[in-house]
Amino acid sequence: MTDQLKHAINAAKTAQINDKQAEATRIASSSAGDQTFDMSESSYKTSHTAIRKARRFAMQGLYEWLVTDRRFDVDGKLGWKANAPHDIAARTRATNAMHTVHIGYYHEMMRDIPEQIEALDALILQHLDRDIDKLDTVEHAILLIGTYELQNRLEIPYKVVLDEAMKLNNHFGATDAHKLINAVLDRMAVELRATEVESDTKANLRTSQKSAAKQAQVKPADSTEATNEVQSPIDNSPTASNKPRISANNASIKRNSASKASANISEFKASKKDADDAKNQD
Fold first, then answer.
1. How confident is residue 240, by pLDDT bands cut at 50, 70 and 90?
2. Which strand (E) or helix (H) includes residue 159?
3. Would you state the pLDDT for residue 221?
4. What is this structure's pTM?
């Protein structure tokens, strides 16, 4: 056996081993109990907008999972299950431009929410007036995301969770569905975020008290200024008693003084003329 043939046989064996390992990895990752996601975020956005887009894709993925594998699981039709959450995520990434999406958060929701579905549904059911299966599937998916964030993502303020749920409903849900979603998540926030809700309530109360106190201080000042504005023309306007008065007597005195001075000058000129005439005669 030549060396070239030996090398070819070894290469074929190595390729066969690699194919078997790849197949084993694929089967393991396809099992429901071991979902493998690529959590790399190095080349993807992590901004607030990117997180919002991750919620939208997760809502659509959860909707698809709820009407397929989850429904088959509940109905006992396990043989029909062929649409695992990680397969939905893989197809979503393959068919959509995901460069502006927070991929890590999207994968987290597509992995954790199906795994915690029983506990999340139990929380939702506590604040519902109907059974879970009576919910519209879109509403169910939105409530799952909101409940998951209230319970597990404590760094996201509860008001943001409620606001984002409303945005998801505006984009995907029915017209009046926001009433149910808001009511359920609002009551759930009081239970899961009691400290945060209490602090926010106290802060709002202090703000309203400060605003009321400021308005109470401004009102007397405004009334005083208004009074001053009304009175100021009367106080500052000149009256008859305040005007400098020139009497007729004073005027006549000034005129008499001027006439007397003029007469004295004329008399002086006349006497001087007489004196000059007398000198000329002598």
1. very low
2. helix 158-172
3. 53
4. 0.63
